[in-house]
Amino acid sequence: MRKVLTLFTLLALMGMALPLMAQDEEAAETPEPVIEWECPEGFAGQTLNVWNWATYIGETTISTFEELCGVSVVYDVYDSNEALIARLRQGNPGYDVAFPGEYAIAILVRDGLLEQIDTGAIPNYENIDEQWLGLYFDPDEEYSVPYLWGTFGVAYNVNVVEEPITSWEQVWAHEGAVVWVDDPRSILGIGLLLLGYDPNSDDRDEIFEAAEYILANSGNVVAFAADDGQAQLARGDADIALEYSGDVFQIIADCECDDFVYVLPDEGSIADVAAMVLLKDAPNPELALVFMDYILDPGVMSLIVMDVLYPTTNRAAIESGFIPDEILNNPVIFPSSEIQERLFLLEDVGEAEQAYNDAWDEILIFGGN
Amino acid sequence: MVAGLKRALRKHNAFILSLPALFWLLVFFITPLLLVLVLSFMSRDITGRGTLPFTFEQYERVFTTFRPVFVSSINIALISTVVCLLIGYPLAFYIKTRRSDAVRNLALFLVILPFWTNFLVRTYAWRVILGQSGPVNTTLLSLGLVDEPVIFLNTQFAVIVGMVYTFLPFMVLPIYASVERFDFRQVEAARDLGANDWHTFWRVVLPQTMPGVVAGCILVFIPAIGAFITPDLLGGRDGFMIGNLITRQYKGTGNVPLGAAASMVLMGAVMLSLLVYIRFTARQER
């Protein structure tokens, strides 16, 4: 018996050690956009370390950069702003470039975890739409180079939800399974918005009033999904998922069907933007700036947009003619200026973050009752 | 002098030999535990990490707001343990009573086989299996047993299925160890003395395999009550457990001292069940 138990322990350890299998990536499409960008001399043989979100870059973006510059790129992914911040607080594990979201940039700047960026060394910086420059998380354009943006909205299965959704009220009233993303700021932000408050409110009473409103409307929620509400929607385990736009468009592209749509309700919603940053103690800051310049090339950016289906902050890419009309003119992928007026970026709310956290605990505990 | 040193060494042999283990426990168990204990009495700062002054606020919140989650976690863990026992006990007997060594070894091997695959991957597989378009529902539908898909995923039921699946080996193996030591001639003796099946089981078999049952229950209950991956992936809103709430507090914007307080309370519950175990084994030995 002792032998059996030893064997058992050994096997258990082996099981734990086996790595999690990576997800298959979808097949690449024939690239039409032309990349005019040329790599400056003198970088051949060097290495760049890039740290990004999963499914947040084009299929060929990295390999093309490696070819053009004769460099090798170490490319790793993280799954949340929180994970990125937590790792960087323990010291930069050796990366040059990362792609945090807006409030995460504010925190990283506050904690002194980023290097200043000399935007003069990035010729393509001028391709960025001014609308995305000088925002609250980087008012003096010192630390971040805007990349893609996106929205938080409603994805649903048109076979089950017959009436087109135009209002959050329809989501609350739906008779059937709804999945919410486990994101306090976005969901409570919607609650605040619908109650007529600022979605970035830092008033504890308003936040808890929003929590009560959200709780009262959570009767049909079956799960608070950490990262994959869209997968539950795709498999039919939920009729409606509150999710981030790009995640939903990726399942729509994968299924090659007309079953799913993504909408932004008329009342408005939350928007997010991610930017490239230069990490403190980056091993190769010069090559990092070259990489940022490459990413901002209209052709490179168009290829990225066609793969990840998030709107870009890059005006030159939008005007390049490379991005197919069905993507560019889709008002939900690329929200029109009319819709943009009803979108709010989440801001760093300082100490009120705790109120959001406390309120969210109660929603998780009492939601649906 | 040398002889004296040798004698002293021999005298304190046991203590010296246990030094590495003691050092290990001190550094990697006692110290973190004390840190968590201190943290659980602290306030939180802007980023959610612990700061002074000391307060009972976190425990107050754990015992009020968090209470329903503790209750449902204990429920889920208890049910999972009982189901594991109901499946594991007969299974251990089945394996023991196979005649050939090869069959017995194969059966034991099959019990441990799932550990060859990563736990996360297996739990993700259950999501597909239990889903509305998964194999279970497809079978039920095609057999005409149900008219529309049954909702298994995102329920407490799914969490219990996932836990029983994961923890069953922890129940089977200790029971098997007890059953292996059990002398089956005692069953014949009990028969000869006029005991019926029920009495034989209740008065002879069960008491002698009880240490295995208790060890198995503890080994299942303790990880079950603190589980967070299984409820996170399978449980949805209804299967939310205390482990999920604690994990949340340690991530990014959470409330770390609150997570520490909830951990201490959870540990208290686990220690209580260990005390039961020690009491039980002490009584057995008497």
Question: Which chains make the largest contact?
Answer: A-B, 45 and 45 residues
Which H/E pattern describes the elements of chain A? HEHEHEHEHEHHEHEHEEHHHHHEH
Characterize the largest beta sheet of chain B: strand count, sense, and whether it forms a barrel. 2 strands, antiparallel
Query: What characteristic shape of chain B results from the CA principal axes?
Result: globular
Principal-axis shape of chain A: globular
The overall pLDDT of chain A, averaged over residues, is: 86
Low-confidence stretches of chain B: none
Distance between the termini of chain A: 49 Å
Number of helices of chain B: 13
- CATH 4th-level superfamily of chain B: MetI-like
The CATH top-level class label of chain B:
Mainly Alpha
Which architecture of chain B per CATH?
Orthogonal Bundle
SSE class of chain B: mainly alpha
Please state how the strands of the largest beta sheet of chain B are arranged side by side.
1-2
Q: Which stretches of chain A are low in confidence, meaning pLDDT under 50 for 5 or more residues running?
A: 1-5, 7-31
Could you characterize the architecture of this molecule?
- The complex is a heterodimer of chains A (369) and B (286).
- Chain A is of the alpha/beta class and 369 residues long.
- Chain A has two domains: 28-149 and 274-335, 3-Layer(aba) Sandwich (D-Maltodextrin-Binding Protein, domain 2), CATH 3.40.190; 150-271 and 339-366, D-Maltodextrin-Binding Protein, domain 2 (3-Layer(aba) Sandwich).
- Chain A is built from 15 helices and ten strands.
- Chain A has helices spanning 2-17, 61-69, 81-89, 102-110, 168-173, 184-194, 204-216, 229-234, 245-255, 285-295, 298-308, 315-319, 325-328, 337-340, 353-366, and strands spanning 47-53, 72-78, 97-98, 144-157, 178-181, 221-225, 240-244, 260-263, 269-278, 343-345.
- In chain A, strands 1, 2, 3, 4, 5, 6, 7, 8, 9 and 10 form a ten-stranded mixed sheet that branches.
- In chain A, helix 6 packs across helix 7 (204-216).
- Chain B has 286 residues and is mostly helical.
- Chain B has a single domain (66-285), classed as MetI-like fold.
- Helices cover 76% and strands 3% of the residues of chain B.
- Chain B is built from 13 helices and two strands, in the order ααββααααααααααα.
- Chain B has helices spanning 2-11, 13-40, 57-64, 67-96, 101-112, 119-130, 135-142, 156-181, 185-192, 197-225, 229-235, 242-250, 256-285, and strands spanning 42-44, 50-54.
- In chain B, strands 1-2 form a two-stranded antiparallel sheet.
- In chain B, a hairpin with a 5-residue loop joins strand 1 (42-44) and strand 2 (50-54).
- Chain B is globular and about 70 Å long.
